[in-house]
Each structure stands twice: as structure tokens, then as C-alpha cells.
Design a protein that fits this description.
80 residues, Arc Repressor Mutant, subunit A, 3 helices
């Protein structure tokens, strides 16, 4: 799926207009601002997330427990 900069810009503008995100210079710049969820955005995210996770689980196969354990070790390995 190809996503253009114009698509992303339009998407971000809509999220801002809906009050779900706001731009910030923290971890960003005037030319390329960073974005963060607003309180309204956090509430919306918390409402949508459980259903999204359910949909992802339906579409993706379950991984064996051994693989999950190995994947969970990666951040620990990278930190050391």
C-alpha cells in the first residue's frame, strides 16, 4: 500500500481538527513537528484499541510460546 506525503498530511490535519492529536516541537522541529495524543485522543485510543487487537488476532496466526519467549528477550539483549 503506497501512502503519499499528501495523504499523511491530510490525515494529520483531520486528526488535529477532530482534537485527537496536537503538534509539538518537543522531539520535533518547526519544519517537521512531532505529534502527540490529546486527552480526547487518549480516550478514543483506549476505546478503539481492544477491538483493534481483536481484529488483528483474527487475521494473524498465533505464534508458538517458544517464539514469543525469544522475541521478548530481544529488548533485554539490545539493552545489554
Amino acid at each position: 500500500m503506497k501512502v503519499s506525503r499528501a495523504n499523511i498530511t491530510t490525515f494529520l490535519k483531520r486528526l488535529i481538527e477532530d482534537g485527537l492529536i496536537k503538534s509539538t516541537l518537543e522531539n520535533g522541529s518547526e519544519k517537521r513537528p512531532a505529534y502527540q495524543l490529546t486527552k480526547k485522543g487518549v480516550k478514543f485510543f483506549e476505546t478503539v484499541l481492544p477491538s483493534h487487537i481483536g481484529n488483528v488476532k483474527k487475521k494473524m496466526p498465533a505464534f508458538p510460546e517458544e517464539l514469543i519467549a525469544l522475541l521478548e528477550e530481544i529488548p533485554e539483549t539490545l539493552e545489554n
